Amino acid sequence: MDLKRRPRRLRASETIRKMVRENHLRIDDLIYPMFVMPGEKTRVEVSAMPGVYNFSLDEFVKALDEVVKLGIPAILLFGIPESKDSVGSGAYAEHGIVQEAVRIAKKHYPELYVITDVCLCEYTDHGHCGLIEQGEILNDPTLDLLAQTALSHARAGADMVAPSDMMDGRVAAIRDLLDKEGYAHIPIMAYSAKFASGFYGPFREAAGSTPQFGDRRTYQMDPPNGNEAMLETALDIEEGADLIIVKPALAYGDIIYRTKERFGLPVAAYNVSGEYSMVKAAAANGWIDEKRIVMEALVSMKRAGADLLITYHALDVARWLNEEGRL
Ligand code: PBG
Questions:
Q1: Which among 43, 149, 274, 285 has the fewest CB atoms less than 10 Å away?
Q2: Ligand 1 test: best mutation among 32, 119, 128, 313, most atoms within 8 Å of CB?
């Protein structure tokens, strides 16, 4: 065969493959989601997410030690409150569980970048992300509560806030209040393209946030829609979003790609709970090679255009990357 072009030449050894590799996972890409709850000396493993825990604050601090030692730059915090009510008071309480977790994290590890999830669903007794009237999830009256939540996180010392509720106008409401109260320097990472996904199932067990009636389809996006994700993202940027989250990640590579291509802002891919559980379950059965699958899935998000990776695999990934660095 008289072949001029032979792509296999550049695949002949690990050395040349490494030299021409186009995308890389870095420890600096990683954001580790963590769950905090009231109590003492307890960590409860989430049953569908082996290796992921709900931490009491003292255990949370211990766990942070490992996060920091591994060089992971950032965490994303979720709270499970002592009690829930119809207006999600725990979300914006000055001494709520997330607010206290932020304080304690920043006190022990000032360099650790602490991001907070801003939403009501973990704090409402009905499990929805907004206020309810006659079975309807209200948009505008919810905005002030979301802004108050973000403000209480900033006051506690959060470095960045991440609204995940999908109400219209929430980024503007949060930006306004933060600016007014002296927090113009706090960036907003918006869950702009957040789909109504079956992949959040295990998270809802972890956070006890399964809606008590109906579902989230009137506020989270319909999975078949891509153009709508571009609209949501454009609106969030207009309203002041600094970074964009695409969520879930694995089945939404096209959305990651389009978001990066079109807007150029930093994009975070959220490798969600169900994506984690699937890998863990298959690995526990010996059906897949966990490390290989995790690294391949995550680098696919980088290849699609993500800058940052929010992943429950962060500790393992950091360990693997550190080991490779030492070889
Ligand atoms: C809160 C929120 C959810 C997730 C992140 N923030 C749950 C939901 O929208 O039901 C899901 C994260 C995951 O599945 O890992 N609104």
A1: 285
A2: 119
